[in-house]
Design a protein that fits this description.
Order of helices and strands: EHEEHHEHEHHHEEHEHEHEHEEHHH
Structural class: alpha/beta
Helix content: 25-40%
CATH topology of the largest domain: Rossmann fold
CATH architecture of the largest domain: 3-Layer(aba) Sandwich
Number of strands: 12
CATH class of the largest domain: Alpha Beta
Oligomer: single chain
Number of domains: 2
Shape: globular
Number of helices: 14
């Protein structure tokens, strides 16, 4: 097979740069993930190439990175429209990514763009079509999300004009970007599927429910947490809520629960896929036609009803492991990238 070399970065969001790179390596290519980090000590994930932002800001570091790319990389997948090189100056930071694209073309490299969610989602459109959208607020974090996503969407015409492939990591984003390609999130399938084999469900009298929001306001904690606290107070469930944890602790938490509550955002991201792979039940809000994942679909008005039903009936998961293996063990992701760049064996 053609030995193309990939670089995916610079955010490594949810460790996807790493997982997609590993998938490409298994498919016969060379690939590395890149993370430009402001807080190396606070990282939950470690990329193949890690650069501290204070070092990256200095021109010599970026020039060295450019030399490495020129010599060793064929295809660069830019996450979230974050520039990797930014060799030229300028007052308009929105042009830095376009400068990177033009430089890559000049030296004969191909580019793609990957969006993960909040970096491109139209928060106002989301709140307009979803009565329980977390974006129906004016908190500071939302203002920052809106500003960033608006800046990225303003660049889309230039990206399309350059005929650069656009990928989104979750299917709900196709609402905002119908001309994008779905690049399925990839997980460490063997590690999480082992949990299904070694940690059976329903080993306790109470239904063990795990809720692990990365950002409470974005993951609808104001709507989910009161219900779980109520049911725990009744003695119906064992509510597991450790707060944000390093990713290395997620398998242990999944092994200790029967059911995972995800969010009302309408996204099927990395964590629910890991939970399905671990043989756990998953509850989340899934908009119509946005995913075929075997998830128990809930809204704020049905979450308590569904939790009481599961606690009483104790149903077994159906199809989650098979779904995750089909779409999220990395093979489908690598295939999307390979086909998009018309790489042939």
């Amino acid at each position: 097979m053609s030995r193309k070399t990939f670089l995916i970065g610079p955010t490594n969001s949810a460790n996807q740069g790493n997982e997609w790179s590993r998938a490409l390596v298994r498919a016969g290519f060379k690939s590395q993930s890149l993370r430009i980090s402001s807080d190396p000590q606070g990282e939950f994930f470690v990329a193949d190439l890690s650069i501290v932002r204070k070092d990256w800001i200095e021109l010599p570091a970026r020039e060295k990175l450019a030399e490495d790319i020129a010599s060793n990389v064929d295809i660069i997948l830019f996450e979230s429209l974050r520039p990797i090189l930014r060799l030229r100056g300028g007052k308009d930071v929105r042009n830095f990514i376009l400068q990177d694209f033009d430089l890559m073309k000049k030296i004969g490299k191909k580019c793609g763009v990957i969006f993960h969610g909040s970096d491109i989602r139209d928060v106002d459109a989301h709140s307009a079509r979803n009565s329980f959208s977390p974006f129906r607020t004016e908190r500071l974090e939302l203002q920052e999300l809106r500003k960033r996503s608006n800046e990225n969407r303003a660049q889309l015409d230039e990206i399309r004009r350059r005929k650069i492939p656009i990928f989104v990591s979750t299917q709900d984003l196709l609402i905002d970007l119908p001309d994008a390609q779905w690049l399925p999130v990839a997980i460490d399938f063997p590690k999480f599927s082992e949990i299904a084999d070694t940690s059976p469900l329903y080993t306790s009298q109470k239904l063990r429910v795990l809720y692990l929001p990365s950002r409470s306001w974005l993951k609808s904690a104001d709507l989910i947490d009161p219900v779980l606290v109520k049911l725990a107070g009744e003695g119906l469930i064992d509510y597991i809520n450790p707060g944000p944890v390093p990713h290395e602790q997620v398998p242990q938490l999944l092994s200790q629960c029967d059911l995972v509550i995800d969010q009302f955002l309408g996204v099927v991201g990395v964590f629910p896929i890991e939970a399905l792979t671990a043989g756990r039940l998953v509850m989340s809000y899934v908009p119509e036609n946005s995913s075929t994942a075997p998830i128990i679909n809930i809204t704020p008005s049905t979450i308590e009803i569904e939790l009481r039903r599961v606690a009483k009936e104790r149903p077994m998961p159906n199809g989650g492991i098979e779904y995750a293996q089909r779409w999220h063990d990395g093979r489908a992701s690598a295939d999307v990238i390979i086909r998009s760049f018309k790489i042939r064996s």
